[in-house]
Amino acid sequence: MPDNNTILLAVQTAAARHGNDPANLVQILREVQDALGHIPEEAVDDIARFLDIPRVRVAGVRGFYHFFHDRPHGRYEILFSDNIIEHLQGKPELLQQMCTRLWVEPERMSEDGLVRVGSTSCIGMSDQGPAALVNGVPVTRLNMERVETMVELVQKGVPLSQWPADFFQVEDNLRRADVLLGEPLERGAGVRAAVEKGSDGILAEIDRSGLRGRGGAGFKTAVKWDFCRKAVDTGEECSIVGPKVCDNTAATVRYVVCNADEGEPGTFKDRVLLNSHADLVFEGMTVAARVIGARQGFLYLRGEYRYLFDKLNGILAQRRRDGLLGENILGSGFSFDIVIHLGAGAYICGEESALIESLEGKRGTPRNRPPFPVTHGYLGKPTVVNNVETYALAAKIAAKGGEWFAAIGTAQSTGTKLLSISGDCERPGVYEYPFGVTVRQVLADCGAQDARAVQVGGPSGTIIGEGEFDRRLAFEDLATGGSFMVFNRERDIFEAARNFSSFFAHESCGFCTPCRVGSTLLKKGMDKIASGHGTCADVEELKRIGQLTRAMSHCGLGQTAANPVLQTLDKFWGDYEKRLISKEFEPSFDLDKALAVARRITGRDDAWAHVSAD
Prior knowledge:
Blueprint: H1 4-17, H2 25-36, H3 41-51, H4 55-64, E1 76-81, H5 84-88, H6 91-102, E2 115-120, E3 132-134, E4 137-139, H7 144-155, E5 174-176, H8 189-209, H9 221-229, E6 231-233, E7 238-240, E8 255-260, H10 269-276, H11 278-292, E9 296-301, H12 309-321, E10 337-342, H13 352-359, E11 383-387, H14 388-400, H15 402-406, E12 416-423, E13 429-434, H16 439-446, E14 451-456, E15 462-465, E16 483-488, H17 493-507, H18 513-530, H19 536-552, H20 556-561, H21 563-571, H22 573-577, H23 591-594, H24 596-602, H25 604-613
Parallel strand pairs: 1-2, 5-13, 8-9, 8-11, 9-10, 12-16
Antiparallel strand pairs: 1-3, 3-4, 6-7, 12-13, 14-15, 14-16
Helix pairs in contact: 1-2, 1-3, 3-4, 6-7, 8-9, 8-11, 8-14, 10-11, 11-14, 17-18, 18-19, 19-21
């Protein structure tokens, strides 16, 4: 346990590095934990004092994010990815093997304080799983042999820097490239076009392209950017006004935010973009800044991708040296810079208003909408939030023109889409397709020869069966943020839905009752059926709870949390039916069975048998 002076120094250093700004609270907490191993109560006191904010706010933020700890959690923290794909790849057996060999219980630290082994939500590595985070660093392609080696390394106290390098190898697995990933763009071409064409010219190209947000909702990018640049800050309020267009020197402060919190299970395309095409992403953010008149941008990087943090900062530094970022970009008088903020493990922060709350150093609780971020975003100022893929495409459109992009894909879904393909296929990885491609074509390309079902868009998306494989990936048919999970005929779709219901219950922010309670009841209902106590009455209750959760929840998480259960009940009823024991109600708790061990220990069964015989 660190002493008070050590704690004070860690807090003072972190707070000073971030200007004692409460908006940087999440970053300060992360750095304090890096220095101390956890965030003790004394650190909470010191942070509150240095930032001049209520202690309860600091404690609340610490308790909200999964990767923050209020007590020591071991010299080694090993968290296995709990995605359903990695379950099917053998994750439960590998986790149990590691716990057995290290003599620890899952989710608990060893008595000597050396190691803690547990699970975490999808870490974006399901194309090369099973995978785990070891002290925040991904280890891929786990098997029994690799687990045994990890056990030996932990027991010997070997630092991660001396572990075999291939343990930490993360591959792009780019299997099919098209206009985004297959046609290199000259570095700076998008920024130069933005400087030359100006705000109106670039916005016109984005509008002509038909670009829609690639996060899944598909809102028109040009419309969002136009709303933001027309938003006028009047002090307490910000509103959209007529034809007014801002410029880079306007009084209204605006922000560009890149949502790189890729938390949807089975999604990893942004990982590839950030690892190998980050210049394109930063280029697109700069193009957006030119359009809306922003001077400051943020890339919100999910905590699971922390291993990319230093690399991305290095790319930003190089862009500044090359005059593509910072003050007076390319001598144009246009200034814009980007800061990377790290998340700390919270799926809900993928929702844009929750992400903004986190950027402001708060719990990631979704805001009421309206107002929307384009008028009331970061620090209450007009803010554009788009995802990684959208900005990368915007850079290409700025350089090559809107008509070029509009000629690809379909009328309502122009351009290409990146898919993160995993599961029962020979060639998992990232695939780029023009919008309009059929699911059947994708399955053939990735080597899924015996597919029974595909989960499109992750747990919050849509599951389809064999009869729907001719449907097309497009906003007018199957919209998707990019996750594409394949299940063959041997897979139990009930277990996939059960895993997804557990995920939503775990990731609910707890703000609203319908989601907080509804997601938990859905998980418990699925667990009851899995335990052999399910009945038709329980299925009807699942439907009722699912519909209430969908209709009454505050944000998209709760509104989609019931999708896996309701959709699989409709399309894969047989996987439920074979588990049901009757049509009547059956309690999930068997009191007689629970007391059986105690009766045997005390000999009460024998005594009762003797009395009965008499």
